Amino acid sequence: MDLDVLERSPAGILVPIKGHDARVGADYRHKAFVPAPLPEIPDLSAHTWSVVTDAALALGRLDQAGRQIPQPELIRRPSIRREAQSTSALEGTHAAFADLLESEVAPDEIPTPQVLEVRNYVRAAEHAFDWIVDRPITLGLIEDLQGILVLGTPAGLHTDAGKLRDRQVLIGPDNCSVEDARYVPPPPGPLLREGMDHWLRWVNDDSSLAPVVRAALAHYQFEAVHPFSDGNGRIGRLLIVVQLMQYGILREPLLIVSPWFEAKRREYQDQLLRVSETGEFDPWVAFFATGLRDQAISTAARVEQLLDYQQRTRQMLHENRIGGIAMRIAEDLIGNPIITIPWVEKTYEVSYQGAKKAIDRLMSAGVIRELDNRKYRRAFVSLEVLGLVEG
User: Fold this and answer.
1) Per 3-state DSSP, what percentage of the chain is helix, strand, and coil (rounded to 5)?
2) 244 in a domain, yes or no?
3) Pairing of strands 26-35, 380-381
4) N- or C-end of the chain: fewer Cβ atoms within 10 A?
């Protein structure tokens, strides 16, 4: 963290911190950055406003596509899980998409630590999306999300799990010292709580500012405040979609944001830090809006491809006189591309033999195939759907 640059920054102030860093076994005396309150209206260029408008239009088209879907929950399910996989990868937790889906249809098996973390994100996201339907974003919600996210992980054993952090954190390479950190957010205590109180008021206040810009500024501020000892990046990116739902831009949480940021990870991190160093929001908002625009377009195209697959498969099965439970399973593959016989038995309330017969008919028709190198019990997959949802 360049203290000389941040000392001159109009975006916040440096405050002295001291303590003992148990990770490296050394005491430290350093400074932390406390971001200033967000502006009501940031100074943005004409180019950036143009990108913001494009993003808003793309989000509108995605929302309209979501409104045309007879069963939006089918598309919502893989969207949340693809986001879960990508947002976790951004933080260094890598789990194959197929492993995540397979673990959910084999609940009796113990997932790997990586899959557990990604599944925790799914649970947190589903809680957030249910909450925001009729309630505003609150500190209680965000603390709940963090508690769900770290459940069953080493971070879940911290004294501040599910609460604002009670320790100093830093952003930088593993085991780097506080002095060598890329960024040191506010210390725990009054400054941290004040920062979150401001963030919540700013996010929930009525404002004429474009929702895409509001989401961009809120995401920067959340990451700059860094309210938790773990999970800040994942929660911050989850809150992007939550905000867009709160502001009425999206009805269904279909938007997948993290793959774009994952592909541009270094620039994403640099753009966030640059706001703290310069106080200039224009480059960051343009970058952020470009990501939302591109991901909205990509997600809408994927929705259309999944619905096309569903229609083609339905028609093919109809022509081959395959109906009943087999048809229902096939129609639902766009939301559940990996299945097991016990899962089908439970989900569709049929006997084991009925579930097996339906799966056999779908295998004979070429709709699904047995999954190779499975980690859990015998499983079956639609490779076409898996390829579409995994991107």
Assistant:
1) 60, 5, 35
2) yes
3) unpaired
4) C
Last residue of a domain, one of 233, 266, 301: 301
Domain contains 311: no
CB within 8 A of 3, min separation 6: which ones? 14, 31
We report the CATH number of the domain holding residue 335 as 1.10.10.10
From first to last of its 391 residues, the chain has per-residue pLDDT tens of: 889 999 999 999 999 999 998 888 889 999 999 999 999 999 999 999 999 999 999 999 999 988 888 888 888 888 898 898 998 888 888 888 888 888 888 777 788 899 999 999 999 999 999 999 999 999 999 999 999 999 998 888 889 999 999 999 999 888 888 999 999 999 999 999 999 999 999 999 988 999 999 999 999 999 999 999 999 999 999 999 999 999 999 999 999 999 999 999 999 999 999 999 999 999 999 999 999 999 999 999 999 999 999 999 999 999 999 999 999 999 999 999 999 999 999 999 999 999 999 999 999 999 999 987 655 568 899 999 999 988 7
Residue-by-residue DSSP string for 105-127: T-TTSPPPHHHHHHHHHHHHHHH
Within-domain flag for 309: no
Specify whether 227 is located in the same domain as 326: no
70 φ, ψ (degrees, to nearest 5): -60, -35
Q: Give CA 391 to chain center in angstroms.
A: 15
Q: Final residue of a domain: which of 272, 301, 330?
A: 301
From the list 376, 377, 386, 272, the residue with the least C-alpha distance to 338 is: 386
Domain span at residue 28? Answer: 3-301
Closest CA to 384 of 323, 309, 289, 321: 309
- Contacts for 136 with CB less than 8 Å, ≥ 6 apart: 204, 246
| 203 and 326 within one domain | no
Residue 129 neighbours by CB distance under 10 Å: 18
For residue 312, is it within any domain?
A: no
pTM: 0.92
| Measured torsion, CA atoms of residues 144, 152, 127, 348, in degrees rounded to the nearest 10 | -160
CATH number at residue 54: 1.10.3290.10
Nearest to 314 by CA among 301, 330, 298, 338: 330
